[in-house]
Design brief:
By secondary structure, this protein is α+β, with helices and mostly antiparallel strands. The chain is built from eight helices and four strands. The mean pLDDT is 84.
Length: 180
């Protein structure tokens, strides 16, 4: 039996035999998808996201980007720099029209995101010597270091989306405060 709500999924097993046979496979699959299996009792497992920010952001961005947000799990995409680069490019396209609003909430985060999008071989080719966008530090990075940089940029993009979403709450509170 499976039950779902907005923060987790619960699975209940009829017998311990099903549980023992199924849970090891479920643990691996859920780990790859960014979830943790949290046992509730011998016949019941709750599936909880490892990173609740992904759940929060995915519900507030366009569906196609949302699906990719769920697949950007550092471990399961490990080593796939091209896929990460493409996803960050798409995320940047989503954030670009919201840049001024984001700067109003946190200019540092906005500046870091767009600096990486423009200078870390995401939007522009920054690794070919002689190109006007060439960045020696990016060109000289190991694949692992570049991937960690992309993962940090992804983390900032998630944070940016949460900040942008907070504008609704901020506006509602400001409307009440204006009446004080």
């Amino acid at each position: 039996v499976a039950m779902a709500n907005e923060s987790h999924i619960e699975l209940r097993y009829a017998t311990a035999t099903i549980h023992d046979a199924f849970v090891p496979y479920l643990n691996q699959l859920m780990d790859d998808l960014g979830f943790v299996c949290a046992p509730v009792d011998p016949h019941w497992v709750s599936l909880v996201p490892k990173d609740s920010r992904v759940i929060e952001v995915a519900g507030r961005i366009p569906q196609e980007l949302s699906k990719k947000c769920f697949t950007y799990i550092h471990r399961s995409m490990a080593g796939n720099i091209d896929a990460k680069r493409e996803f960050l490019r798409e995320f940047g396209c989503y954030l670009e029209p919201k840049r001024k609003t984001l700067e109003g909430f946190n200019k540092t985060i906005s500046d870091k995101i767009f600096s990486m999008l423009n200078n870390a071989n995401i939007r522009h080719n920054n690794v070919i010597p002689g190109d006007k966008n060439y960045k020696a530090v990016i060109a000289g990075m190991s694949a692992d270091d570049l991937e960690r940089l992309y993962d940090s940029t992804y983390d900032l993009c998630l944070t940016a989306c949460m900040l942008l979403d907070s504008s609704r709450a901020t506006c509602a509170i400001s409307a009440v405060e204006a009446k004080f």
